[in-house]
Amino acid sequence: MQEQEHDQEQTSGALFVRGEMSRITDALAEPVGLTARAVREGRRRRLRSRLAIGGAAVCTAALAATGLAFLPAPASGSGGTGPAPLQMAAGAGASPRVFPTTTVAPTASPDPSQSAPAVPEAERLRIEDFRQRSAAVLQDLLPAEIGEVSLLSDHVSDYLGKTAQGDLLLRFSVRPHVDSGAPDGSCSNSPIGQEVQVKSSTCKRIQLTDSVTAITWAALDGDGRTSTSVSFRLGNSDVDLSVNPYSRGAGGPASSPLTVDQIVAFAEQPRVVALLDEGDLHPVEAAQVHSTAYEQ
Question: Any idea where the domains of the chain sit in the sequence?
Fold first, then answer.
């Protein structure tokens, strides 16, 4: 033990003497001749050595500070018994937005012989994912007047909009087209942009894109409530986007707060177009013989 202490004292003393000698020689004027070059090289080596030691010290301090920054903070309050858990970055583990499903009671007792075949689990999850993303574009891209959106349980294409004025049926439908002959609706062959009056409703054929024509409807029911919609053919599918009064909800039916122009603007949004294209390529609805894509 004494020998170790003696060695430490000797080492400390040697370092002190070496440092003092370096300081004194640094202050001396450079000699002339060949010796000056040797002195300058010695001073440069000592300077590099000091810088290296200083840099290592700075790096060590920085690593220590970084490690302390990631240590869990102490629990606050008198009831804490240990360190708080490590905080995750905001949004790193955020859950995806999920729209609830509103269950609708059937209007009549179901016939067991007419029950739909069971859907494989993978297909059910695919359709549910499509419906969740459809609800998201309805909520995000339609005006706020459509209220709070949820999925309706009875039809894949149907969604509920709950507002202070009542309930709305939001339809986001893209289903395989079945050719049953040319439609003979009032607006099917009317000039582009010309409004046609059909009882208490108004329809108009519009040019949605360079290759797609659509028909808009603004309808009035017997109770004076309005519905607005746009429908068109897309690829191998019929598309129907509409806002209607919903009479089966707890809030009572409400008139559509949107104009046909607002629904057309919704149909032109890139997120909507992408979903409709997906529904055309990978259907989530069954085909129907009589298409309502061009008639009301």
Answer: 120-281
